[in-house]
Amino acid sequence: MSDFVLFERDDAVVTLTLNRPDERNALSTQANWDEIVACCERVRTDPTVKVVILTGAGSAFSAGGNVKDMRDKKGISAGNPYAIMRGYQNGIQRIPLALYDLDVPTIAAVNGPAIGAGCDLACMCDIRIASEKARFAESFVKLGIIPGDGGAWLVQRVIGYARAAELTFTGDTIDAQTALSIGLVTRVVAPEALMDAARALAARIAVNSGPALRMTKRLLRQAQTGRLDETLELSAAMQALAHHTPEHDASVAAFVAQLAKRK
């Protein structure tokens, strides 16, 4: 792999940092897309990972696609319509499938502008924390294109249809406080406090059972589109598995011990 994504591990927390600050961490090449997917696969197959933080190096989270490539009909914009369609399917569209479907909780620490595909990348995570310098835009329509990386599916699940429609139809850029007010992010912090806030949240999550976290995330994802009876059936099956994990036994023992101390 190249060094587009820095993979850092601190106990059960993995931090993925998009590392092309001179290019504003644009998601513009097959190598970039492949590396994000490979990092997700590395996390998916490691049961000791409990949380992932995704952020960007430099001043931007991600500026999205490469507009010059669009102008020059290069990269993902190259070829006939069929070639472009296949390029999306085999390229950038693999990222939402890989990142959104990770079993472990994911936190986007949005350090700066998250524009176009960068905004959608943040929405692929479970939780978003923003720096005061963050900006967000579903800006595809401004370039005469559509959100080809799954944004039409992702954004409305975060902020609801009407707000997603307004952002997507206008292509307007919003600041961090506006993003907070519409539920696009859960917290806005000073730029210098962003990673500390993300790591503190990750630590609060990571103290919990790894198997329970992974199964809980699967339930939350399934419940977004499934019927109640389907969710209940899956919940029963997963609960049966959870009851037979060492983590469950340890958690119960610790809880009982705490109760004994209070008496």
Describe the structure.
The strands form 2 sheets. The chain has a 6-stranded mixed sheet, with helices on both faces. A 3-stranded mixed sheet has the order 5-7-8. It is globular and about 70 Å long. With 263 residues, the chain is an alpha/beta fold. The protein is built from 12 helices and 9 strands. Helix 1 runs parallel beside helix 4 and helix 5 (117-123) packs across helix 6 (151-159). A hairpin with a 2-residue loop joins strand 1 (5-10) and strand 2 (13-18).
Instruction: Enumerate the spans where pLDDT stays under 50 for 5 or more consecutive residues.
Output: none
Shape: globular
Given the structure, what is the number of helices? 12
In spatial order, strands of the major sheet run: 1-2-3-4-6-9
Kindly state the number of beta strands: 9
* Rg computed from alpha carbons, rounded to a whole number of angstroms: 20 Å
Average of per-residue pLDDT values = 95
Secondary structural class: alpha/beta
Strand content: 15-25%
Task: Give the distance, in angstroms, between the N- and C-terminal Cα atoms.
Answer: 56 Å
| Order of helical and strand elements | EEHEHHHEEHEEHHEHEHHHH
Oligomeric state as shown? single chain
Largest β-sheet summary: 6 strands, mixed
Residues in helix, %? 40-55%
